[in-house]
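Forwarding these from the shared drive since the link keeps breaking.
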Amino acid sequence: MKDAVLVGELDDNPGTSVTNALEQVAESVRRELLDDDPNFDLYEYVPKGLPGLRPTFYKIEWRGEPGCFSMPEWQIVEPGSDPWLRHLRSNVMEQGYTARTLIAERKLDVIDSRRHEDLPVAS
């Protein structure tokens, strides 16, 4: 089975948005979590958007050179249509989407924890 990764924008993100840095995010996931394997499905979760928009999941398709993370295209995915997302959906938060919450309360790891050195590490 192909690995799948869900990324999302933190409410307390001090830097570039996930959407604007998606190629770098994918490269970090590949390097830090997947032993340099570029063969994985990447999803982005947007907990809130413009007024009236509901939280949305996107599957990222790479339209650039094969094996490279370039020319991303976002395809809206209904969580109920994907078994992996259907299972994961119950654990995804729509509010309080911050590094502190994900690390301390939800016990999830953050790839670049240097930005959050004052927070406890998940155990």
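-- next protein --
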Amino acid sequence: MAVVTILAVTQACVPEPFSRREPPLLPDGVFMSVRERTYPVRGRTVAAIGRSLEHAGPRWEGRVVQGLTSWCVRWEWRSTMHEGACRLLNVRVLLEVEIVLPDWKDHDSASPSLAFAWERFEEALRGHEYGHRNIGMQAAVETFRVLEAVRTRDCTAIGDVAGTLARGIVRKYEKRNDVYERNTRRGRTQGAVWPPGG
């Protein structure tokens, strides 16, 4: 008779500073929800916009940032014995992403040159933040593939084994977020910085 255990594990809610490209298709069993929210920015000069960003922007590790992405990887499964080994069935991995971006309220009344500078900045900031989202997607896909391959001799140990593997994957991708931040100088190399050229 098969032993079936329902397991649910939650892991890796990590705030990350932020890309806008359409994501690649995810494999069956991996699901993603993305929530974008904005904070208001005011001003009709480069300096005034900068002050507003500094005042209203989200905080990360004790400092104000211009954009912020956080992601969580969650997983669930059923375990069952089959042909002398315990394996996971119905593996589901959910990636939850939240992206915070500025919303400049004075765009329509600003000079064309300032509006153009903002549009370039905003697009670059989205691109940088969606880069963090994409790292979270890679974490979710790898977690799913590893969990599907887990086998143990009995079902008493499979939860601990699978959870340890999944958490290790998430930690690996958290480190990739840090590398991404360093390599892009927190988005500066991508143009995701205000004032322009700053």
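Helices lie at 46-56, 112-149, 158-183. The chain has a mean pLDDT of 88.

- D.
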